[in-house]
Fold each of these.
Amino acid sequence: MKCASLLLLLLTLICSGCNVPLPSSATPDTVVQSNTSSTATLNPNTPPPIQILPTASASNAATFPDPNAYTWQMIVSHLQRLTDLQADGSGRLFVLEKNGRIRIIQNGQLSPNAFLDITDRVKDAGNEQGLLGLAFHPNFSQNGYFYVNYIGQSGDTFISRFQASGDHADASTEVNLLHIKQPFPNHNGGSLAFGPDGYLYAGLGDGGSQGDPFGNGQSLDTLLGKILRIDVDSKEPYAVPSDNPFGNEVMFYGLRNPWRISFDKQTGDLFIGDVGQDTWEEIDYVSAGSQGGLNFGWNVYEGDHPYKDNGSTGSYVFPVAEYNHADGGCSIIGGYVYRGSIPEWNGIYLYADYCSGKIWGLIKSGDKWQNQLLFDSQGLIVSFGQDAKGEIYLLTDDGGVYQLARK
């Protein structure tokens, strides 16, 4: 297994194919949904159309720019084990430290005080646990609401809402939306993002170990291995949208460990970076207005390659880009579609590999995709981020934050 050759990665977030042993009395995971409003039974019938609404028509680059004319400019450095970067529209950047702190970057300077500190409730025991994801409510400037995805002291996933005032959020304002039991300490996913439909999306991994031993990716009886979609506005603490395909929180399934989901700011298209097992890393894509209930294939497929014949049948959605570990990679890092101030990058989706530090670009032209390696050896990349103006940032394992810029 590849973990033997990637021993140094055991304390990182993105261990893609690590062999975590089954517990001595292995049983399928159960899902605890705190304060959930959904009691409907899962329905595997053909789902209705979803309502991921495009926000505007987009003008995309037709070709890739010469990457030699651009650089990743350092913004700040020496933060502690970063996992995510988000923006609230005020000009501030918010970076997550794995141990449970959110820090503010404003005007290129790091604030000395934490925006949020929940180190007392976050389990950061190495591997893929910790504070993992952040999303600001679309009306954050009015209501102060933001949402985080973290692994609690129990080892389970918590998706919670907090409320902020100015540059500080009181940890006592936590309202837990979902508490999801995790059978293993890896493959937690962790992404949060508001879609153009106003709903909150959450990426959850298959629960861990290796090879999805409980078949969570293909099971519609668990929230693991899924992209969830919930309405945080119409009911406290949330409601299940009436057009979700299975009558509960599940929107898409068949995922192994979606380490970063993002929506194109202009089109509303959804991109998913799904970490592979031993061989293939993949980028999945959902165009705005596509059908709900899409099945991305894990663990029947790894990428578009057969992985396990478990008797499952159905229609699978295969990735728009993939790469093999033989090329030196180990774990995909999903990114964003560039919509910033450099027009030649407009519409290019950027993604990376954790181990190799390579960064690729994707351009969609009609129903065709161009895929090209753009930057090499950028260090150990753990995540990307995007600000309100569409500029893109990358985060490195040594605590650096960098912005794509002209040389």
Amino acid sequence: MRELGTLVNPADEVEVGGKRVEPYAQASYLLLNKPAGVVTTMHDPQGRRTVADLVPSAPRVVPVGRLDYATTGVLLLTNDGELAHALLHPRFGVEKTYRATISGRLTDDDVRRFREGIVLGSDRAGGAPVRVVSVQQGRSVVDVTIHEGRNRQVRRMFEALDHAVLALTRTRFGPLALGALPLGAVRLLTERELAALERHRRPQEHGPRTNPA
């Protein structure tokens, strides 16, 4: 077709310069409460269950960041690539809150080291505020908030202080809270949540964020 104003039907295939033009897909934003034993990818060569098995097949969305195989909780999936990139931008440092069940109990020194930052091999994790929720029968439930996205960061921080992580759930990702969403369930983001995410769209417009001491 070479005439201006030509209408294209949804079933038509359009090519420009020999390359197929894909139709515009409306932005979609889903919040998943990821269960344990699910891989945070859309396809797994080992045949394991993935988050793709828990969300609608259309429109196509992808996870923003990752949760470990054994970690549960808040996972955002979207086809809005610009927003996904901004949310993962290390300069902006989107807050992520986790509830961890760990062995033993945190000492005052453990809390201090969390707030000052913990050496993880050749790396150093930034300071992270912690709050002890409960302590009973040789284990503790603790909330911790980080601004980075290092591989297995929360687990490694506790392990560096000799506390094994028995269970780990991400309860918040930026302005998105887990709330009462059942394990394995998915829902659309609310208008309020979408508006809150918009301030993260262009992190370069904000100054660099520092971790709390």
Amino acid sequence: MRTVDSPSARRLIQLVTASAELMTALRCVQSLGLCSWCIGAGAVRNLVWDTLHARSPTFNSDIDVVFFDAELPPHRDAELERQLHSLMPNMDWEVTNQAHVHLWFESTLDRIVHPLGSLEEGISTWPEFATCVGVFITDDDSIGIIAPYGLDDLFEMKVRHNPARASADEFNQRVRSKRFRDRWPRLTIEEA
């Protein structure tokens, strides 16, 4: 789903626009001129869950930028990371063209997966439904949202396995390594 008018979408937009750091990061990515992009995963999840735990949101210095452009070669991701780092050097940027993710799966994990057809499809494969959310700046300078599964899990603080690409073991290991329960004790975590 792209931005819809719902209470959760309005609340997410409020949280994003209130975060000076996230807005600066969004403007930096916007300056790259990518046609289909967002900042997603942990940056968005942490902002929402910190707020729902009545904590001052701490901006995650690990920023996942995803985009989709089948015309750009795979090595372009590293060049974009360098550009972003020069604009905002205190951030640990990770830029991934979703058009080439299948190549990474094959070379790194020795796993064959089908090529993705869009940015939304890429986001829809992330390991937890609550994390399958990205935000971007639209052409009219407002905040857009990409949330293939909606925003319920994110705002209801549910951690559920998305089996699209991650196995149950990978999901359970990820939940432990990210220390979700230690960081946000009010989460409901469903083991896969």
